[in-house]
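pasting for ref. prot 1 ->
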Amino acid sequence: MKKTIASFFILSALFCNAVYAIDFSERDRLIAEASAKVPFVTPKELNEMLENGDDFIVLDIREIDQRAEGTIPTLDKYEVTRGQLEFEIMIMIEDKNTKIVSFCRDGPRGAMASKTLIDMGYKNAVYLKGGLKAWAVAGYKIKSGLGRTINSVDEF
């Protein structure tokens, strides 16, 4: 009986690991596909766009609790979680010619969000390569969730 129970738990653990491996590989494939197909901007390019006063919207698709980490200082910023993007974006941004730069914390969800936007007919959707972390590492300012501006990645 003990061997049967032990075998059951071992097989269950192996099955669960196999399921997670399949899910992660599919997720990784989708992220790689989106990253390869969707245009991106680098932190330097986004900073230049902001400094030049270019006409575009920054779309923060991070989860609500992640927004406390801070954000890219801009006036034209919209927020919607990745999970709600398809449901809310057409109300938030009606003009499908609008340039949209989506970002997340590290980049993959930004790429996925931009791919979704393109699939929905938005013609000028790009993502911030490397997300907010790359922005911080590049040395650009971050408006913190506390309302102050962080000047270095060490403060991030």
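and prot 2 ->
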Amino acid sequence: MATARKGKAANPVEGDAESAAAVRILKKYPNRRLYDTQTSSYITLADVKKMVLEGQSFEVRDAKTSEDLTRSILLQIILEEETGGVPMFSTSSLEQIIRFYGHAMQGVMGDYLERNVKTFGELQSRFAEQSQGLAFSPELWTQFMGAQSPVLQNLMGGYVEQSKSLLTQMQEQLKEQMQQAGAMFPVIPGMPGFPPKK
């Protein structure tokens, strides 16, 4: 899957030869065109989406500055998906996500979402393995989901429990961090979580 690799040299020639060969470099030009250095050709967002679906590792770099634009391109693909068909996010969930930006819990929320998406992906892989050899059309899938077979109930039940456990674990870590901060700075008047100065 596409990942932005922090701390990596902007130019693959300067970096480790092995990792440079593994990561496909795409260059973004001022005219908004994407250039695939592996195939020496221009590509579209649809081609980048295909790379993501195939699990290819790549980076998108600004052609002039070598700035990492991978996240920006992935967000463009998500935007196209959200506006083009059946959206994954409701208006309410998007509003809730926006509210976390700049909030003290932004990092925790990001970590929580990332872990949940990873867990859900693992769940999807297990389900695909268990249903191997079965042909699923959209109609059959709808019927299957409506029937809520025991296999699906077990898989989803496990996912929900993992999700609850993850949230509880993250809450405990946050509580410990707040207690440690309180021990380091015992009296900070007006700071949330600390008693007012008498």
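The beta strands are 24-28, 34-36, 41-43, 58-62.
The radius of gyration is 22 Å.
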